Amino acid sequence: MRAVEQAAIASGRVTGLELMERAGRAVADVITERRLGTSNDTNPTARALVICGPGNNGGDGFVVARLLHIRGWQVDVFLYGDPDTLPPDAKVNHDLWSVLGPVHPLASFPAFCEPLAPLPFDLLVDAAFGIGLTRPLPQEFRTVFTHLSSGELARSCVAIDIPSGLCADTGTVLRPAADPAGRWPAAEGLACKADLTVTFHTAKPGHLTGDGPRYCGTVIVKDIGL
Ligand SMILES: NC(=O)C1=CN([C@@H]2O[C@H](COP(=O)(O)OP(=O)(O)OC[C@H]3O[C@@H](n4cnc5c(N)ncnc54)[C@H](O)[C@@H]3O)[C@@H](O)[C@H]2O)[C@@H](O)CC1
Ligand SMILES: [K+]
Questions:
Q1: Per-residue model confidence (pLDDT) at position 177
Q2: Is it the case that residue 41 has pLDDT exceeding 80?
Q3: Distance between CA atoms of residues 93 and 62, nearest Å
Q4: At 222, is the secondary structure helix, strand, or coil?
Q5: Which of 119, 135, 150, 163 is buried most, with the most CB atoms less than 10 Å from its CB?
């Protein structure tokens, strides 16, 4: 996937930023098409919680946040990592989002959620990690994904590219050294359990094998012109 992306960029046909915009728009379009935010009389404005990671998957998340905001959603964005160390394309989209709303540090998530009623969000957008995940999720994400899997945070969850915590090559959940035998229950939030995964260009092995099907939910492959 990286080789395909790099070749398209190297050919001058497309920039990384354009690919990111297309990826984010593809996710936002699926959310709109499937009406994943049930805004009705009791819930006039659909609410989305976007969790961004330190790489370009996070960059996709900032694009989705901006597009949902423009489409009338109320969007709360959290970031794990320092904005200044985001890759360039992700930083551009971080800055574009920042004109529309705050970027909360992920560490502040528990305090942010404390006073909220149960099920405060229609949708959680998982933009933590994509194909760049190299080790088990840090605790901050496990807190969010444990809340999510207990059904008290959001009506549904869309994962960008691959549910975070899952290895895109093998479909296995990356487990901390403390749990080599994989005894910890899924509810430990070791990976995001999504209802829908929107991936780009082609499905990855991790969507189809191992824990993949259980964590991905419905997998939608979107063309981003690669
Ligand atoms: N031009 C491109 O390369 C495009 C990339 N796209 C998106 O970019 C993603 C790949 O982006 P990246 O290569 O930046 O990878 P990721 O965004 O998956 O994350 C990689 C970053 O997370 C860090 N990291 C990995 N595992 C970690 C862990 N357990 N705890 C803490 N930090 C960890 C890495 O050091 C790296 O900084 C794809 O999945 C896709 O969503 C799309 O926007 C399409 C265009
Ligand atoms: K993800």
A1: 72
A2: no
A3: 6
A4: strand
A5: 163
Q: Could you tell me if the CB of 130 is within 6 A of ligand 1?
A: yes
Q: Which of 13, 91, 133, 142 to mutate to test the pocket of ligand 1 (most atoms within 8 A of CB)?
A: 133
Q: Decide: 199 in ligand 1 pocket, CB within 6 A.
A: no
Mean pLDDT, the chain, integer: 91
> How would you label 199-219 residue by residue, b for 16+ Cβ within 10 Å and e otherwise?
bbbebbebbeebbbeebbbeb
Q: What distance in angstroms lies between residue 179's CA and the mean position of ligand 2's atoms?
A: 22
Whether 57 contacts 87, CB under 8 Å: no
* Ligand 2 center–CA 220 separation, angstroms: 14
CA of 41 to the centre of ligand 1 (A): 38
Token pair of 2 as six digits: 């990286």
Amino acid type, 52: C
Strands of the sheet containing 218-222, edge to edge, are 103-105, 74-79, 47-52, 121-127, 154-160, 196-200, 218-222
CB atoms within 5 A of ion ligand 2 belong to 126, 159-160, 164
The string of pLDDT tens digits covering residues 70-114 is 999 999 999 999 999 999 999 999 999 999 999 999 999 988 887
Q: What is the pTM of this model?
A: 0.94
Q: Under CATH, to which class is 2-6+15-222 assigned?
A: alpha beta
